[in-house]
UniProtKB/TrEMBL annotation:
Gene3D superfamilies for the chain: 3.40.50.2300
Cell location: Cell envelope
Domain Periplasmic binding protein: 43-332
Keywords attached to this entry: Signal
Primary location group: other
Organism: Crystallibacter crystallopoietes
Lineage: superkingdom: Bacteria
Pfam families the record matches: Peripla_BP_4
UniProt GO molecular function: carbohydrate binding
InterPro entries: Bact_Solute-Bind_Prot2, Peripla_BP_I, SBP_2_dom
GO terms for cellular component: outer membrane-bounded periplasmic space
Record's protein name: Monosaccharide ABC transporter substrate-binding protein, CUT2 family
Length: 383
């Protein structure tokens, strides 16, 4: 499978930390070149929130990777508050950061901080979320978020039986009642995930196999602020009350990440669905996800959530560390995409990490055998 090959390639990319090898990449870097001594080098890392398990994993992996190489690391979480992130990044620059790794809450809100960093000759890595409307981003390190959306939609169709496990159309015609949820509008990734999903789903909507009973299909209608579990639960509650009365039932919900999926699942359970995908009466609708958070992996193992998209943030962090070292040393970091990510001011040189769809049948293969989780953690549903 192509995804398997990509995962191997990602592991090799992570090994660059040890070998120091690299490919051609972005043209940024410390002005004038030269080697930065790690002990004298300070790196600021600004991530969005401690509310989501994945950001804690990201932060720990980045910090550990840089500190093992001897760098000073200032890791801050903005707790989903834009002014807090702006203040934190201001402080990083004032304190003498030599490089910034930024996951912006809002793609445009850090403009003053970006300008200050450029004035101080500080390279900038946009981490997982794209910094927008700036021509001063040296590198974007992320996952293929468009593919995340297409894989979520494909998983949903497979769960409904419309596609088989090889992605081929079956004789199943539906119609199936499906509702759509999107990510946070201030996160550029939400647009890519939505676009990938709708490219896959639209033909099935057009031919009537899928029916969006609420008629809410635009990202502006289905967005979930801050990718919030609570916001998702509240919207699903409203959809059930307004649209799914009488004998009409929900067959599937496109949920863009695991937090949103858990909010939707809680709402559905409260409305009498489940408890599992194979329940009598009103079975739990097919739901998707993203991030392979341990609580959702447990739900998948228990046949409650159907699938999630695994993004190995440890490999993402390793690639980011390698890129940071190269930028600090005046070298070009590796890129594998120079076309897809136009931030409004430039096409940002990017490195895209591979993804993997996780269902009940491959939890052990993808998450346990890789060492990302232990079997005990999966069984308990907690780290």
């Amino acid at each position: 499978m192509q995804r398997k090959t990509l995962l191997v390639s990602a592991a090799l990319a992570a090994a660059l930390l040890a070998t120091g090898c690299g490919g051609e990449g972005a043209g940024g870097g410390v002005q004038g070149g030269g080697t930065q001594e790690p002990a004298d080098t300070r790196i600021g890392v600004s991530l969005t929130s401690q509310d989501e398990e994945r950001w804690l994993t990201d932060g720990k992996a980045i910090q550990q990777g840089l500190e093992e190489l001897g760098y000073q690391v200032d890791l801050q979480y903005a707790n989903n508050d834009i002014p807090t992130q702006q203040q934190q990044v201001d402080q990083m620059i004032t304190s003498g950061a030599d490089l910034l790794i930024l996951a912006p809450l809002d793609g445009t809100a850090l403009a003053p901080q970006i300008q200050a960093a450029v004035g101080a000759d500080v390279p900038i890595i946009s981490y997982d979320r794209l910094i927008r409307n700036s021509a001063d981003v040296d590198l974007y390190v992320t996952f293929d978020n468009y593919k995340v959306g297409s894989e979520q939609a494909t998983a949903l169709l497979t769960g409904l039986g419309v596609l088989d496990e090889q992605g081929q159309r079956t004789s199943e015609k539906g119609p199936f009642n499906v509702e759509l949820f999107g990510g946070s509008l201030d996160d550029n990734n939400a647009t890519f995930v939505y676009g990938g999903a709708m490219e896959v789903l639209q033909p099935f909507i057009d031919d009537g196999t899928i029916v969006i009973a609420s008629k809410q299909t635009e990202l502006s209608q289905i967005a979930t602020k801050d990718w919030s579990q609570q916001e998702a639960q509240a919207r699903m509650d409203n959809l059930i009350t307004s649209t799914y009365t009488g004998s009409r039932k929900v067959d599937a919900v496109l949920t863009p990440n695991d937090a949103v999926a858990r909010g939707v699942i809680t709402s559905l359970r409260n409305a009498g669905y489940g408890p599992t995908l194979s329940s009598e009466g009103k079975p739990m609708p097919v739901t998707t996800g993203q991030d392979a958070e341990i609580a959702s992996v447990k739900l998948i193992e228990d046949q409650v959530q159907y699938a999630t998209v695994f993004k190995n943030t440890k490999l993402l962090a390793a690639q980011t560390v390698d890129s940071a070292v190269k930028l600090l040393n005046g070298e070009e970091p590796e890129v594998n995409d120079s076309e897809s990510y136009d931030n409004g001011a430039m096409v940002v040189p990017s490195f895209l990490m591979p993804i993997e769809v996780v269902k009940e049948k491959n939890i052990d293969e993808v998450l346990v055998e890789s060492g990302y989780y232990t079997a005990e953690q999966v069984k308990a549903g907690q780290l």
